[in-house]
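Amino acid chain:
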Amino acid sequence: SGPDSFTAGATLIWDGVEHTIPPADEKASEEWMNAHSLLPHLSIKHGNLYWEDKKVDLGKVRVTDLYQAFPWPGGVLIYGRTFPRKGFFESWPFKGPFLEAREIEPYCAIFFDPKTLKGEDKWLNGKVERPFFVFPVPH
C-alpha cells in the first residue's frame, strides 16, 4: 500500500474483457474499506476464525492471516489465508501430493454470515497481487 501503489490502476479481466480501474477509484476503494474495516471484530485462535469471540464455522480449514474485512451483502467479506485441515489418512503419503498449490499460495476470500456464524472460504488460485477493492464505492 502507499501512494505509489495507485499510480497505474488495477487491471482485471471480467467475462473475458480486460478493464482498468482508474487509480482514483482504487484509492477511494481502499479508503472506504479502511473506514468500514471489520478487522477489530475478528480474531484467530488455534487456526479458527472468531467474530466478537464467537467461533465461525468455515468447515475443514485453518485460518492463519486476515488482511481485509468489510461488510458485504449478507455478511462479512475477508481477504486472508486459509489451509485445508487434513486428517492423518488425508495427508501425504496416503493421499495426494506432498504439497498442494493451495498450500503454497493460500490466499482466500472468506465469507460468513455474522448472524449464523456459518461461512466458507474460496481459494483464489494463487497469490493475489493486489488486495480486494470495492467498485463503485457504496455511499
